[in-house]
Specification:
CATH topology of the largest domain: Rossmann fold
Structural class: alpha/beta
Largest sheet: 8 strands, mixed
Number of helices: 29
CATH architecture of the largest domain: 3-Layer(aba) Sandwich
CATH superfamily of the largest domain: Thiamin diphosphate (ThDP)-binding fold, Pyr/PP domains
Strand content: 5-15%
EC number: 1.2.4.2
CATH class of the largest domain: Alpha Beta
Keywords: Oxidoreductase, Thiamine pyrophosphate
Cofactor: thiamine diphosphate
InterPro entries: 2oxoglutarate_DH_E1, DH_E1, KGD_C_sf, ODO-1/KGD_C, THDP-binding, Transketolase-like_Pyr-bd
Radius of gyration: 33 Å
Distance between the termini: 76 Å
Function: E1 component of the 2-oxoglutarate dehydrogenase (OGDH) complex which catalyzes the decarboxylation of 2-oxoglutarate, the first step in the conversion of 2-oxoglutarate to succinyl-CoA and CO(2).
Length: 943
């Protein structure tokens, strides 16, 4: 389609540039709400009003005596109260429901008689410039108020505390030249867009009878409105738009907004793959897929991408925001937030019902998560799947949740495509000026059921009786344009026929269509690939660093600026750290981590870490941020390093939203090490949708690689059910097809190497790390300086800390994580010289080959034991059982199956009693070593 067919929007004049950051960077929620027409409209003080009326009367030559002035002042006060009420509550009387089923009586306080003007329509009142009037009759004022605030667009904005933002919206809404106005050419283009939306859905319904498409039928006004966002956004500096939406109307947006070729979508409808046959992956249903494309308006090119998503409603929202933030960073747009625009399209029931919506709204003004405002478009079908609004929410509108961040809300009638387009035009202008979220709530209807095979009259018979006889949007709009003389009769029918012919040609072309390349490793991902072999691809990655860099990082991590007064305990930590670098021994977990971060930054990578307490670390171990004890200014040592960037953020108290945000960030930027840290590992439960649908399956479903790292504190130290287990078993159950990596690491140096390995390979896979708690300061969990240098690298398995000759080993105890040190200490106390303890540091992809090599050297091995702290139905046992047996068989130990030593099956992850925990822990360690041990809920299958 040429640009001419979309050139339906009037030209913009010069616009005020965007502010530096959001206007509410330091929000004052108690700010006084002041109207903008004139100072007198704020306080409505009678004395000041009388003075204002007298001055205005004198200026216009009106002769008013003192009594008349007093009456006129009283009239003005009542008139201004009426104006204010319409600004606050006029939307409640707006004409929003296309079906006319939502009974919206005019609130009493919006009636003239309520304000003492009953029967006084001809009375002239002074309003000080409101709507451009100095003096106006009551009837004319009332007419203008009704037309402005109670038409097909209802504006909610008086909950906003920032005066400048309210004035902007008020002026745009109340100034005649800024209201809904389009040229004849623009109106014809709007009609063409609506027809494309309608005919596309009708064509799919005819060609693929009974096939789910989750059509936009009834909400087609969204198509020209979204094109307005592209056009006006481009004029105001937007160069990239990132969309997220559920399935309703998705195929229509893909085709008619994103420009995905119709023949490709028809190919997918017929069962064809979206990618070449040799790419692999599971694929996904067509209404979950994304795409990327470019659209040009008025010579301005805007890149657009639609993020793929599952059926979990609103789950894609934080992913879009994280990806937008990353793209803003890549474009050096984090100060202005001008070039990259996130747009989220919602269903009404989901926007009101899904908590992730609020989590994402909450990001809008938070450092490290702000994207400079998101444009939210609610497709308000006035129904969920089968649930009516009164049973789905407790508020008048689905959009009411957005008031929590003082976002303006534009309610609009979906049968008026000009009004919907105007709302989007105003929304993008507001966003570009103020860098704030804004919501368009388009009231429409769902012409068919939840999907095209569903029968909606089971539950909403009256609504669907009305829908059956309700004319299409294009029919209503075409008649309106005919009445205005913009088009002639039959014009719309011609557009329908012309577009349907085009679809028929595309349908025919779909039969021979074959995708020739996958949308996989382009743009910033150029140079990345899919590993040909999971086993060999993870070997021989050079992750060690030179001594010169090692020593330089040591100075950075231990030098306190002269103007910084640090906490005395932090001083002791830094002294100990300085001793590590001086002696070359005793490097702990936090120091190894800082060395990994610092070395990557120095090599030009970005490092981004977020979580609820990531700056200090949940266990006071990290201290990435040093806080001055006198004035609280912050110093972050790693930000002083050259070449790359380091960011650490204490996130909002969210798992689902923040993890999704970081996944989206990592989706956009493979050149940054992006990490999310849970306060305790089991808190990842709150983000399970992101883990299941995106992290574990995103690459297989959508060909979207991702290098996100999850840091999940895990380990049994008697802290109870909620602070012991990161649910390792759940991650292992998700492992297949080389999709993710799962590690339970015991050595600071090994942690250092796995983080560096994550960035130094030419592919990206999500990395799940069971991070320690007690091991953060455990005397045995230390590394020497040499382990970070030379030819050292990540070890998927780690041998015993005691040098036991292989030919003496009769009992091999395999384990993962912290229990290894308990086993070693007890083994050495018991002076057992035929028991070797080997740690599996990477559980998936399972290191079967190196484990087999290790076992093969133990010529006199009699028994293999798997020991774990977790209950038998948790942890790694059911995952590693057969894999260990396969490794033993490969080592020539056919028939040697591992046996289990650990806690019994349990419904709760851990006991809540410290004393019971200790008894259990000692027993399972003894049993694993072949010593006598007994405790309730501990067992061994070993003989």
């Amino acid at each position: 389609m040429g640009n001419e067919s979309h050139d339906f929007l009037p030209e913009l004049g010069d616009q005020e540039g965007p502010q530096q950051g959001p206007s509410w960077g330091n929000p004052n929620w108690l700010a006084e709400v002041v109207d903008s027409a004139a100072d007198l409209t704020a306080a409505l003080d009678p004395t000041q009003m009388r003075l204002a009326v007298a001055q205005a009367a004198k200026k216009t030559g009106k002769a008013l005596d003192p009594k008349a002035i007093e009456q006129a002042a009283d009239d003005s006060i009542r008139a201004m109260l009426l104006v204010r009420l319409y600004r606050v509550r006029g939307h409640l009387a707006a004409n929003l429901d296309p079906l006319g089923l939502s009974h919206r009586d005019v609130p009493e306080d919006l009636l003239l008689e309520r304000h003492g003007f009953d029967g006084q329509e001809e009375r002239e009142v002074y309003v000080g410039g409101v709507f451009g009037f100095e003096w106006v009759t009551v009837g004319e004022l009332y007419r203008v108020l009704r037309e402005t605030y109670c038409g097909n667009v209802g504006l909610e904005y008086m909950h906003i505390s920032d005066t400048e933002e309210r004035r902007f919206l008020q002026d745009k809404f109340e100034t005649p030249e800024d209201t809904i106005q389009f040229t004849d050419e623009g109106k014809r283009a709007i009609l063409a867009s609506v027809i494309r939306g309608e005919q596309y859905e009708a064509f799919l319904g005819k060609k693929y009878v009974g096939t789910k498409r989750f059509g936009l039928d009834g909400g087609e006004s969204m198509i020209p409105a979204l094109e307005a966002v592209i056009k006006y956004g481009g004029q105001l500096g937007v160069r990239e738009i990132i969309y997220g939406m559920a399935h309703r109307g998705r195929l229509n947006v893909l085709a008619n907004v994103m420009g995905k070729p119709y023949k490709v979508i028809f190919h997918e409808f017929s069962g064809g793959s979206a990618n070449p046959d040799d790419v692999g992956g599971s694929g996904d249903v067509k209404y979950h897929l994304g795409t990327s494309t470019d659209r040009e308006f008025d010579g301005i090119n805007v890149h657009m991408s639609l993020v793929p998503n599952p059926s979990h409603l609103e789950a894609v929202n934080p992913v879009v925001l994280g990806k937008s933030r990353a793209q803003q960073a890549i474009r050096d747009d984090l100060k202005q937030h001008e070039q990259v625009l996130p747009v989220l399209l919602h269903g009404d029931a989901a926007f009101a019902g899904q908590g992730i919506v609020w989590e994402c709204l909450g990001f809008s003004g938070v450092r490290g998560y702000n994207t400079g405002g998101c444009l939210h478009f609610v497709i308000n079908n006035q129904i969920g799947f089968t649930t009516s609004p009164q049973f789905a929410r407790s508020s008048p509108y689905p959009s009411d949740v957005a008031k929590g961040v003082q976002a303006p809300i534009l309610h609009v009638n979906g049968d008026d495509p000009e009004a919907v387009t105007f709302a989007c035009k105003l929304a993008i202008e507001y966003r570009q000026v103020f860098g704030r979220d804004i919501v368009i709530d388009m009231w429409c209807y769902r012409r068919f059921g939840h999907n095209e095979g569903d029968e909606p009259k089971f539950t909403q018979p009256l609504m669907y009786d009305e829908i059956r006889q309700h004319p299409k949007v294009s029919t209503i709009y075409a008649k309106r344009l005919e009445a205005e003389g913009v088009i002639e009769k039959g014009y719309a029918d011609g557009l329908c026929a012309e577009f349907t012919d085009h679809l028929e040609r595309e349908f025919a072309a779909a039969k021979d269509y074959k995708p020739d390349q996958a949308d996989w490793f382009g743009g910033r991902w150029a140079g990345m690939n899919k590993p040909a072999d999971p086993e060999t691809a993870r070997r021989n990655v050079e992750t060690a660093i030179e001594k010169k860099l090692f020593d330089s990082l040591g100075r950075t991590l231990t030098t306190v600026p002269d103007d910084l007064t640090i906490h005395k305990t932090l001083g002791r930590v830094l002294t100990a750290k300085d001793e590590m670098f001086s002696s070359g021994t005793g490097f702990d977990w936090a120091t190894a981590e800082a060395l990994a971060f610092g070395s990557l930054v120095t090599e030009g990578f970005g490092v981004r870490l977020s979580g609820q307490d990531s700056g200090r670390g949940t266990f006071s171990q990290r201290h990435a941020v040093w806080v001055d004890q006198k004035d609280e200014h912050k110093y972050i040592p790693l930000t002083t390093l050259p070449h790359g960037s380091f960011e650490v953020y204490d996130s909002p108290l969210s798992e689902y939203g923040v993890l999704g945000f970081e996944y989206g960030f990592a989706m956009a930027d493979p050149k940054s090490l992006v990490m999310w840290e849970a306060q305790f590992g089991d808190f990842a439960n709150g983000a399970q949708i992101m883990i299941d649908q995106f992290i574990a399956a995103g690459e297989a479903k959508w060909l979207r690689a991702n290098g996100l790292v999850l840091l999940l504190p895990h380990g049994y130290e008697g802290q109870g059910p909620e602070h012991s287990s990161a649910r390792l078993e759940r991650f292992l159950q998700l492992c297949a097809n080389d999709n993710i990596q799962v590690c339970n690491i015991t050595s600071p140096a090994n942690y250092f190497h796995v983080l560096r390995r994550q960035m130094l390979r030419n592919f990206r896979k999500p990395l799940i790390i069971m991070t320690p708690k007690s091991l953060l300061r455990h005397p045995l969990a230390k590394s020497d300086a040499a382990e970070f240098q030379g030819d050292n690298h990540f070890m998927r398995i780690k041998s015993d800390m005691k040098d036991i000759p292989d030919d003496k080993v009769k009992r091999l105890v395999l384990c993962s994580g912290k229990v290894a040190y308990d086993l070693m200490q007890r083994r050495d106390e018991a002076e057992l010289d035929d028991v070797s303890i080997v740690r599996i540091e990477q559980l998936y992809p399972f290191p079967g080959e190196p484990l087999a090599v290790r076992i093969e050297r133990m010529k006199n091995l009699e028994q293999i034991v798997w020991c774990q702290e977790e209950p038998k139905n948790n942890g790694a046992w059911f995952f590693v059982d057969r894999l260990i047996e396969e490794a033993a068989e490969a080592a020539g130990k056919k028939g040697m199956r591992p046996c289990y030593a650990g806690r019994e099956v349990a419904a709760s992850p851990a006991t809540g009693y410290a004393s019971r925990h200790q008894v259990q822990q000692e027993a399972l360690v003894n049993i694993a070593l072949g010593l006598n041990g007994h405790a309730p809920n501990v067992r061994s299958d070993c003989k």
